[in-house]
Amino acid sequence: MKRTLRAFYFFSFLLYLAFSTILYAETNEGLVGYYPFNGNANDESENGNDGTVNGAILVEDRHGNPKASYSLDGIDDYINIGTSNSLNLRDSFSVSIWFNVDDLDNDVNLFSRGGFAFDDQLFCQARLTMEYSDIHCRFSVDGSVGTEINTEKIPWEVERWYNLIITKSLTEKKIKYYLNGEQVREANFPGTLHSSNKPFLIGWNQNDHVNKYFDGVIDDIRIYNRSLSEVEIMELYSGSMRILNPQNGHYYQRFDKPMSWHEAVNFCNNLGAHLVTITSKDENLFVYENFDTKNENKCWIGATDENQEGKWEWVTGEEWKFTNWDGGEPNNSTYYDENGEDYIHIFWILAENGTWNDIHGSSSFEYDNKNYFEVPICEWDKQLTYTDSDDDGVIDQWDNCPKTPANSCVNNKGCSCEQSIIHEKGSVSKGKWKTYYANIAKTYSNFIVKIQDLTDDIDLYVKKGNKPDVNNYDCRPYKGGKREEICELSNNDDNLWYFCIYGYKAGDFTISVKANR
To answer: Which is higher by pLDDT, 401 or 365?
Structure first.
């Protein structure tokens, strides 16, 4: 039975147009070790934590690039990335590692800085045998010998790539595990890890108790001195960053996380975007050339005819005037679902050059004895359009704003809506910067920036157009110590604003930006 969702999707998009602004948290912020293994084990984070390879050999990586990952033999191979204090992961941190295994006969070490001893810090294993079949990590906390945190059973497969990301937030007092973009464990973790002078090792734990070398292939490794957000975690797993289409000024990004069509709509909306809408031949070619998954995952388009069979509509409410159907499509087949096919994906197995196919709305489908997954491409519209469909002198996005005094909100003036643009917890190292930035539309006349919940001496700097520094800024509400800081600023055009946090001492914080109409 058809569901009437047009109003919901269109309303969601109006909210997006009115309030969204692209937030970029620099993915390299807080990166203390980065090992893409481009022919060597050098650290490309500019921190100089280069690795020393012991026996491992360079092989093809997960993308098919030659000599771009390391194969370890499970006997005595490992990589030592040193004892630098920058790799002492104590308060907030994140570690991302890609790996696949040759067999399921043993438990293997992924990374470690020590092991069971009191003066050690952490180690993480993939326990592959049927007895455990999980991710097993141990963390030595100041004042105690150690805390073990394991996942539920994982159905491991040989020669399949896995991305494990472990992130710890001192502010949230949580530690979380993500496997291939999905959260598989969350635990309370209020403590600080014990400092260690032992080397940070990849593929081995030198503690005699757990002398289990990694057997398989290890690819990109990233180590941060801060916790990562869920969006950043998804970006690292997807391996897809936002790409600008110069023809329309929009940004696009594929997320390789299987989800149903409705989940994909909500997922993109929650990022301040919408599920991609393709309204021209040029845009279709851009999406095809940049996001073709080479016959692996298939990508959702933000269109449906679930409201009325055969009447296709974009989730944004845009005019339906361009199509790129594959031959014989759409056919509303009931082969997979008796309710027919009310949604569209691209990169269909039998299609070429980005043609479209209608399909049911679940997160996967089977074709020719192979299972395929559906994933979203999200689109951010840089150039916003404003309409006044009821001709009341107020653009649609502001029709529900409070009007003070009554009926004074005309010609887009007089509305008093407040919208949260940024609200995020973060951390910064001593002597380092944490940078956020956002395009704030001229429809917002002023905004307030606040940092609070400080754990030590951290300062806020705000500047329009460029990154601030300690001598150049538009606002620096210096308070000192752990006191919250607030900037109140006017905005008279479409402007790019930078919100930067400087750590006079290492600490955590919460940053918020609220704009007013």
So the answer is: 365
Closest C-alpha among 213, 220, 256, 269 to residue 73: 213
What is the end-to-end Cα distance of the chain in Å, rounded?
41
Burial class (CB in 10 A: 0-12, 13-18, 19+), 311: exposed
Q: Which residues contact 8 (CB under 8 A, 6 or more apart)?
A: none
Report yes or no: 120 and 113 within 8 Å, Cβ to Cβ.
yes
| 115-146 pLDDT tens trace | 555 556 788 989 998 888 999 998 887 656 67
395 to each of 17, 139, 140, 380, 405, how far by Cα in Å?
11, 54, 57, 20, 18
Q: What is the pTM of this model?
A: 0.59
User: Are 165 and 216 in contact, with CB atoms under 8 Å apart?
Assistant: no
Could you report the per-residue pLDDT of 325-340, keeping only the tens digit for each? 988 899 988 877 778 8
Distance CA(56)–CA(417), nearest Å, equals 59
Hey, is 448 helix, strand or coil?
Answer: strand
All structural domains of the chain, each given as residue ranges with its CATH number in brackets, are 6-25+241-380 (3.10.100.10), 35-229 (2.60.120.200), 386-410 (no CATH), 417-516 (2.60.120.380)
* Residues 149/137, Cβ–Cβ less than 8 Å: yes
Percent of the chain at pLDDT > 90 equals: 34
